Amino acid sequence: MAGLGLSAVAGWQLGRTSQNEPILNLEQQRLQRRSAALEEKLLEGTATSEEQMQLLKLRLASGNDVGAIALLEPLSDQNPTKWSLRLLLADLLLQQNDSAGAEREIRQVLNINPIQPQALQDYARLQLKLGNEQAVIEQINAAAVAAAGRPEALSIGLLQADLQQRQGLTAEAEATYSNLIGTHPTDPRPFLALALLKQTQGQIPAAKQLLQRAKLYSTPVAGTVLDQIAASWSVGAVRQQAPSGDGADLVNKDPEALGGDGNELAGRS
Asked: Which residues contact 169 (CB under 8 A, 6 or more apart)?
């Protein structure tokens, strides 16, 4: 009976698979037909901008990056203010190992808007990969000055502080984060960034305080994640102070030595 039961289950599963396959094939065929129709309209020169965007998505979904690049080049020129198109083009060119082409596209965005945060981030990533750290620093510092008092200032300031940390300028990075907290007191990002910096310095209590402040301005889901991060930092601090691997020899220690009230690891308030 057991063997019969297993056979029945296996047969049911196989039946489900075979039943689903036609559905998947039909959907695939529908997409292929749609793609073929759009490709024909593109060749005829009658494809609208919206249809070209649909075709772009289909080419990307099918893994046709070369075809996507060929479509993005004219689309980016036709829509110079849609920076996301040109940055996508830059990303695809970089994946094709065309660093010069990627830099050209990113610079075109920055020529139109020198403080576009995503373009600056992509530019920094590319230039650091190429070893041009000084060029990145100069560009980001100039952008930070230009963005003062504007919505882009926060994103650019966070990028600037990241670069300062990369250079080993910890005090400058901390000052940048503190300034961002002062100018953006209800945004959790500078609190979290400064908390991470404090954690790397071993200042766990200060880091946890900053996480709690970040939590005040975060969504409930993000707040739960921040609580988990804080708890992991507490456990890490205990393990570092304990000669044994599980921290058991710290159970009777003074709670103040753990940087807390001694109840965090037990889950008590």
From this structure: none
Q: Which two tokens stand for residue 143?
A: 């952008």
Question: pTM of the entire structure?
Answer: 0.73
- For residue 239, what are the CA distances in angstroms to 97, 112, 198, 225? 44, 51, 18, 21
Q: What is the pLDDT of residues 178-233, one digit of tens each?
A: 999 999 999 999 999 999 999 999 999 999 999 999 999 999 988 899 889 988 98
Please give the pLDDT value at position 35.
Answer: 82
What is the reported pLDDT for 258? 33
- What distance in Å separates the CA atoms of residue 223 and residue 193, rounded to the nearest whole number? 15
User: Average of pLDDT values for 39-49?
Assistant: 87
Contact 188, 218 (CB under 8 A): yes
CB 87 within 8 A of CB 122: yes
State how far the Cα of 74 lies from the Cα of 29, in Å rounded to an integer.
28
Question: Got the DSSP string for 142-159?
Answer: HHHHHTTTSTTHHHHHHH
| Spatial distance between the Cα atoms of 260 and 170, rounded to a whole number of angstroms | 25
| Residue 44 tokens, joined | 């005829």
> Which pLDDT score, from 0 to 100, does residue 72 have?
95
Separation of CA 104 from chain center: 23
Q: How far apart are CA 29 and CA 26, in angstroms?
A: 5
d(CA 55, CA 77): 17
